[in-house]
Amino acid sequence: xxxxxxxxxxxxxxxxxxxxxxxxxxxxxxxxxxxxxxxxxxxxxxxxxxxxxxxxxxxxxxxxxxxxxxxxxxxxxxxxxxxxxxxxxxxxxxxxxxxxxxxxxxxxxxxxxxxxxxxxxxxxxxxxxxxxxxxxxxxx
Length: 140
Prior knowledge:
Shape: elongated
Strand order of the largest sheet: 2-1-3-4
Strand content: 15-25%
Radius of gyration: 20 Å
Helix content: 40-55%
CATH architecture of the largest domain: 3-Layer(aba) Sandwich
Order of helices and strands: HEHEHEEH
Number of helices: 4
Structural class: alpha+beta
CATH superfamily of the largest domain: Glutaredoxin
CATH class of the largest domain: Alpha Beta
Largest sheet: 4 strands, mixed
């Protein structure tokens, strides 16, 4: 019985250590992404050709998504509503089909919304965002 308790405590310590490391990595990733997104504000979009040429003038959004991502599926109605809006041009990018494009923009996770104004990055949302947050960031 004494050996079973020692094994249990050993497994519990290993589990909590791994959980702690995971938590620290997640926090560091969020800090890194926050720093990176602040550095990108005000800079021009890396691509302004093809379908991205629509974003040269006016307000727009580059929406990176994955069809298998549950938060991306929850964002779909918001994105469709905003794309119907005449003032916002939305370019949707499937990261499974265009991973090189996601790398070029520095996207680490989906969903990711990059808000633009006249071809320059205004704000970056990592993860799902509400319609109100997006409209507020674009000052609609």
